[in-house]
Structure formats: structure tokens, C-alpha cells
Design a protein that fits this description.
Blueprint lengths: L4 E6 L5 H13 L3 E6 L8 E3 L4 E9 L2 E2 L1 H7 L2 E3 L2 E9 L7 H9 L4 E10 L18 H20 L21 H17 L8 E2 L10 H5 L23 H5 L5 E2 L3 H9 L7 E3 L1
Parallel strand pairs: 1-2, 1-4, 3-6, 4-7, 7-8
Antiparallel strand pairs: 4-5, 8-11, 9-10
Helix pairs in contact: 1-4, 5-8
This protein binds flavin mononucleotide (FMN).
């Protein structure tokens, strides 16, 4: 069997999922790539033919598929289309995310032929509290490309759609997690919650004089939480805390200083490794 086109579907406010998506599709060697970037808008009604490959890459928020990503994928359908599912997480855990993506894909007409979990720099990572800084790194991207190559091989070695076998993403190997730092993290989270310390509901502009009102934060915000001309204000009801505005700001005017960044940086130092199943 051969596939001549790939639908590259991703949601990626801080671009780590996008990097993984591009490395995988590059690895497949498929030249005709149709990018469907749902970061800023919903995919709309799209039917992906069985003759194409679909690759869906989304970030993990709170152990789930980022809710806005899930919402924006809803119009996509396959026709028993060979599909690759990938979740990208910030070195803590991905918990239910890959299974949720699978539970979306199968009833939407996709045949899940491969799955993976990759690590991306945590959206909350700062110079002071680094969390998985620089991920995906060269080795992650090489692995993603290699994964793409194996997907191509799996498709090519199948005689027909019937023998292109699906995978059960639940069988993917979970990364090893040392118990003591995990225990420390849970203890600190409980303490933080008990203390009643208010958690910031959205990034904010720390030093207003630094903001040049360039509007990049407005353009990058996937949720429409910042308005052109009113860049000093973030609509907390709309904000998804993805930190796209913080990472995009060339003046470093925007910050999201959450106590969780300290905890994540302290307790998840050991770098996890990507896992694949196909
Ligand atoms: C609101 C929010 C919740 C997150 N929850 C988790 C999580 O549960 N586990 C984890 O390891 N990383 C978590 N992350 C980190 C992201 O999964 C990670 O930074 C990912 O690489 C972001 O993808 P993107 O660069 O494509 O936006 C969270 C990030 C945000 C903004």
C-alpha cells in the first residue's frame, strides 16, 4: 500500500507539538503535506480520504488533551483513514490524554495505526524555573523522524487496508517516574491547595512601560483573550493559560508566574523519553 498525502493536524500554542508533527511527517517522506493548524481556529468540516495518512498532534493540559484542541478537532472525519495519534507533554505526565485522543479518533472514522508520546518544554517554564527546557531537542526530533519512517514502512508492507493493522494505544509503555519526587510533588500540591494561595488565572503584563503594543500577543493567543489596543489586559474567562503570549513577547513584558512552575521544576528534573507504538 502507498499513501501520497498526509494531513498534518495540530494544535500548538507554544510550537512544541508543531515541531514534533513536522519531524514525524518529514520522516515519512510523504511530499504532499496538507497542514491543518487548529491553534487559532477550528478545522471546520474536513473529510480525510482513506488513501491519505492523518497525523494528529496535540498538547496535554492537566493530564487531558488540551480542551480547546479537542473542541477544534470535532469537524474532522476519516473514511477508515490510517491515522497517527501523538500527545506532547511537559515532562510531568500525560495521564488520560492519549486514550482521549483515541476515543475521539475511532468514532470519527480513523484507523489508528500508530501512537506516540513526546516531551515538549513546559508552557510554564521560565529561566528561573526551567521545566523540560529545549525539548523537543535534537534527539527527540530524530526519534520523531525515525517514527515517521517506521510508519511509512508499516503502510508499505501492508498489501491492502485490511492488513494495515490498528494499534491499541493503551498498550504504549508509560515513562518511568521516580517515586520520591512524585510523592514530593503531590505533597506540595496538597499543601499549596490547603494554603488557599490564589493561583493566577491568566498571564499578565508585569511592567506596563515595557509593552510596545506590537500586538503579537493578540495574534498568538489561540483563545481571543487579548484585544488589539488593549494589550495590557487579558480576559481571564477566555484565557487557557497556554502561555503563547508570554513566549511570543519579544520585550518579555508578559509573565505567568505560577507556584506550579516552581513545583514542576523542582520535582520533575529527570527527563522523560518519548514512547511510540506501531
Ligand atoms: C494549562 C496547561 C496544563 C498543562 N498540563 C500538563 C500536564 O498535565 N502534564 C505535563 O506534563 N505537561 C503539562 N503542560 C505542559 C504542556 O503539555 C507542554 O508544555 C506542551 O509541550 C505544550 O505544547 P505546545 O508547545 O504545542 O503548546 C501543561 C501546559 C498548560 C499550558
Amino acid at each position: 500500500m502507498t499513501v501520497n498525502e498526509a494531513y498534518l493536524i495540530y494544535f500548538s500554542p507554544t510550537h512544541t507539538s508543531k515541531q514534533i508533527a513536522e519531524a514525524i511527517v518529514h520522516g515519512t517522506g510523504i511530499k504532499n503535506i496538507l497542514p491543518i493548524n487548529v491553534t487559532q481556529q477550528a478545522a471546520g468540516e474536513i473529510v480525510i480520504p482513506a488513501s491519505a495518512l492523518a497525523i494528529i498532534v496535540v498538547p496535554v493540559y492537566g493530564g487531558h488533551v488540551a480542551p480547546l484542541a479537542m473542541e477544534r478537532l470535532q469537524g474532522i472525519r476519516g473514511l477508515d483513514t490510517p491515522t497517527v495519534l501523538v500527545v506532547v507533554y511537559g515532562n510531568r505526565a500525560y495521564e488520560k490524554a492519549l486514550m482521549e485522543l483515541d476515543a475521539f479518533a475511532i468514532p470519527h472514522g480513523m484507523k489508528v495505526i500508530a501512537g506516540a508520546t513526546f516531551i515538549g518544554e513546559h508552557s510554564y517554564s521560565t529561566d528561573e524555573h526551567p521545566i523540560a527546557v529545549g525539548r523537543p531537542d535534537d534527539s527527540d526530533l530524530a526519534l520523531a523522524a525515525e517514527f515517521g519512517k517506521k510508519i511509512r514502512k508499516k503502510i508499505e508492507t501492508a498489501d491492502a487496508m485490511d492488513t494495515l493493522y490498528p494499534v491499541d494505544v493503551r498498550a504504549i509503555k508509560r515513562p518511568s517516574q521516580p517515586f520520591i519526587p512524585l510523592f514530593r510533588f503531590l505533597r506540595k500540591v496538597i499543601k499549596l491547595r490547603k494554603s488557599g494561595t490564589p493561583l493566577p488565572r491568566a498571564p499578565w503584563v508585569e511592567n506596563e512601560s515595557v509593552c510596545t503594543h506590537c500586538g503579537l500577543c493578540v495574534v498568538r493567543c489561540p483563545a481571543g483573550a487579548i484585544t488589539k489596543g488593549d494589550e495590557l489586559h487579558t480576559d481571564e474567562a477566555k484565557c487557557i493559560k497556554c502561555c503563547a503570549c508570554v513566549k511570543a513577547c519579544t520585550k518579555k513584558a508578559r509573565v505567568y508566574d505560577t507556584p506550579f512552575a516552581t513545583l514542576l521544576s523542582d520535582c520533575f528534573k529527570k527527563q522523560k523519553q518519548p514512547q511510540t507504538i506501531l
